[in-house]
Amino acid sequence: MDEIEQARRYTRHVLVSGIAATWLVIVVCAASRLDAGLLSWWRTALAVVPAALFTWLCPRIIRAILDRRHPTRLVVVAAVLALTAALAGGPDLTAWGFILMAWLSIATLNLPRRTSLLISAGTWLVSVAAAAVTWRDNLFTVGLHLTFEEVVFLNALMFGVMCAAMPPSNRLWVWIWTLAEQVHGGREAHTKLALAEERLRFARDLHDLVGHQLSAIAVKTELAVRLSDVDAAAAKAEMAEVNGLTRKALKDLRQAVRGYRELDLAAEVNSVKGVLEAAGVRCEVRLPYRELPVGVAPVFAYAVREAVTNVLKHSDASFCEITIRFTEREAELRVRNDGVARRQAADLGSGLAGMGERLAAVGGELRAGPAAGGHFVLAAVVSLPLPGV
């Protein structure tokens, strides 16, 4: 399960917890009434049925809201069920009336602020009116022997506080979830854009290097075919030029591919730092003050690119540290971030597999995995001097 799905599940659990709290209040109220000999079994049975249907309906409403929809019909049905349960069981806030607050906390999600305030005010009025109608059965009346005016005032105050507090708290969680979803989508889009730009750059370089030579080869080949029947010597000369152009094009192509593979380390480090910071990941770079040994820079440049791509695609990091050091015996690249990868290092895709092959070709090794403190560390180590250098 990736981070965005975990965030969605956590948000859903927080929203559903309001329903669980409702049942906790109901159970405590029923136990209190039973202990005092005031529990009406037939009223409790009438209230449990719509309350159970309301509980079954709420997760469907929450799922729709997290999908950026507002299921108006389901919200209306849930309101009827909540009000029915409250009236049947006793709508004071310390009993079945709490179900109205649970409905309000869900019904106002993904709605404009003014609409949310109107629904909150309407719920407050309905809750206070229902509590006033059944005031003789109110726990405040039974336990504290309050008058009608005192019961209405106390319910108005308590329902007012709940109607003002519950909608913003749940709306805050949905807002945080929305931000997380947007950040995740922006990070993936940024990574895809960076990869697409790199492909376009490579394609442009290839076109500039060998495109005109291939065009010349096509023209001269066609000319040689035409001259083959009338002037064999001229056709042979054209084909000799075609051969020379072909060799030159092949040489340029190899140089372009070699240059693409053997990246410039300084330029690559600056590039990935810019990409990370654009994605909201703070990046610190620690490079040696001396020039790296011959052959190490291209290998580490490629490793830096793959490591940072891994950070962007497979972690939720907010910090990344790139460190390069070397001694007379070995050189090491270490990329550390504070977002543990979603997959194990052995299953991080072809990028790290290719990096491991490159390091193995020069006698090096790749180590990647979670570290202490919730960090993920990738280390590329090569022994010095490199073979063949």
TrEMBL record:
TM region positions: 12-34, 40-58, 70-87, 118-136, 142-165
GO molecular function: kinase activity
Pfam families associated with the record: HisKA_3
Protein's name in the database: Sensor histidine kinase
Residue span(s) of domain Signal transduction histidine kinase subgroup 3 dimerisation and phosphoacceptor: 198-264
Keywords carried by this UniProt record: Kinase, Membrane, Transferase, Transmembrane, Transmembrane helix, Two-component regulatory system
Entry superkingdom: Bacteria
CDD domains in the cross-refs: HATPase_UhpB-NarQ-NarX-like
Organism the protein comes from: Nonomuraea composti
Cited Gene3D superfamilies: 1.20.5.1930, Histidine kinase-like ATPase, C-terminal domain
Higher taxonomy: Bacteria, Bacillati, Actinomycetota, Actinomycetes, Streptosporangiales
